[in-house]
Each structure stands twice: as C-alpha cells, then as structure tokens.
Design a protein that fits this description.
Strand order of the largest sheet: 2-1-3-5-4
Oligomer: single chain
Number of strands: 5
Amino acid sequence: MSETAKTPADFWFDPLCPWAWMTSRWMLEVEKVRPVEVRWHVMSLAVLNEDKLDELPEEYRELLATAWGPVRVCIAAEQQHGSEVLGPLYTALGTRFHNRGLERTRETIVEALEEAGLPAELADAADSDAYDKQLRASHKEGIDLVGQEVGTPVIAVPGPDSHGASAASSNGGGGRATGGQIAFFGPVVTPAPKGEEAAKLWDGTLMVASIPGFYEIKRTRTQGPVFD
C-alpha cells in the first residue's frame, strides 16, 4: 500500500444500536486524523439473537422486534443503489433514532431516505424479506471475523500480511488471522472522541487487536451514550 493510500476500515453496523452509533461517529473523526477510509456494511441484531430469544429479557425482545425494518431498508438501499449510499443513510437514520430520539416509524425512515438522496419507496423494504438473503450474508461476513459472542459494531482492517486484501476467515473472537484482517468488536466508548483523542484510541485499538491471542479489555459502563 502506498504512503498516500488510505487504509480501508470495514465497519458493520445495525442502525438500532446506540453504542454502534457512538463508535461510528468516532470513526468519522478517525478519517479526519488518520489515513483511513470507512467502508460501511450491514449486520443485524435481530439475526444475531434470533436463536436465543427465549434467553433474553422481555424488554430486549421487544426492542429486537423493531430491529428488522431499519436494517432491511439499509440492505435494500445497498443492493439497489450501491454500498456508497450506506454511510449517508446510516447518518440520517442514526441522527433521528439516537440524537433526536424519534420512533422507528415509516415516516422517520422516509425522512432519512430523503436526506440521503434516496427514493422514499425504499421504506417498503422494512416489511419485506426480499433482501433477507443478502442481509444474512452481509451479517455473516462481519460476525465470522469476530465470533458469535459479540454484537455491533464490528471493525476490520487489513492485516500486515494481507496487502490490502479483504479476507473473511474466522478468527474466533479478534486478533489477526494470518494473511487476513485485524478484526474486533467495538470499541464501546462515550462520548465519541474527537481530534487527537480519536487518533489515540484508533492507534491503541489497532495495537492491542493485532496481538495474536488477544481477546478482551472491559470495565463496567457507568454512563449511557452521550449524543452530541
């Protein structure tokens, strides 16, 4: 990769998740301070949890019941208009869902589509399984990089032996698959760091995630997402 080339950072998101939203806003800051280009992909909390609904709290099950619509709209938009529309659409949806606290209704989705320059008819995909095969394939591509015990977001960058290639071999939870990608869940952070703080978190995250056999750093969250 040349010195002027940007490192692709593949980012899998579900627009439902407030923590993925925080991480995505951090990644937009990273693009400003490091030679990184985010490539957006869809994953689904509904798909991730569909086989363990009986084990989940009722409140979370109710939340997941509303998760299909937005993610189906995102995958339909990608399939019909290309992957480059996902970033603007995610921003339009996330700003409404998280920053403004709007309900995940058809009206809200239509407003987001229009802001992203996409046809309002894509909102019909919320109640359709027409693109569920593609949704599941996109979800699987991301989750296979990190394993089933995590959620959204998943981030992957080329490993040192990949020469920019986008390998999709599973590494069971993080770290680097030989010749493949450095992939990880998170980071979970609030508020989204900006400027040099964003750069420091990016550098540190890549440093620990690149260590073979490294899996987890964690501490109890003491505050919810801070949207700004």
